Description:
Elements: H1 2-27, H2 35-43, H3 49-76, H4 90-114, H5 119-131, H6 133-158, H7 165-184, H8 190-207, H9 210-229
Amino acid sequence: MKKIGKILGQYIIYIFIICVAFILNSVNGLLGWDPLLLKIFHKSNIYGNQLGLILIIVSIILMLLYWLAYHLELKHKNNWDFKQEIEFNWRSIIIAIGGFAIIAISQFIIMHLLNKPSPNQSEIGNIVNNAGQIFELNLIIIAPIAEELIFRGMFFNTFFTRPTTFNLWVGSVVNGFLFGYIHAGLSIQIISYWIMGIIFSFVYLYTKDIKYSMLTHIFNNALAAILMIV
């Protein structure tokens, strides 16, 4: 009974964190991840250096809290043997870059099949062209790190915790859907983010190191930002 209570407690904590992240993502102004309020800020001329600095500080504080929660979970349960120390190796780097290449190719194919970018990406493109370095820092660095801690790190520490083939594949598909739903809802564009989430999960589970899924995510967002600017 005590064990069941601990498991339920983990689920509740993770769901709470996801809900908070979803609210922050939707409300936007706090983190600068979603373009809606940033667009209002620009129209109202209130997105200046001071607000940008506040966004960065809040984002970094939340990112550190996510990192702390992630490592506390690893100390409590780590059946996958995820690495906690700073460690770099060529195999993991190749997996991270390979994951990025697969995502880039899949996004290119999906964009041509849909014949249009997602509304989310279109809005972000408009903001990137006007917001400058503050939004780009959030998009390319802070958001990928925070999202990997939440959607990959905490997810697999809470659900699909045993290193089985079933958990690897089903967990990655479920994780991808959750990631897609948070970014695109139930629109057709969820397919794009769903694939991203699955690949990020594979990179994390095969390298057993959250830093490499972060690296893949950073590469992906950096490429998206570059394509939006040019």
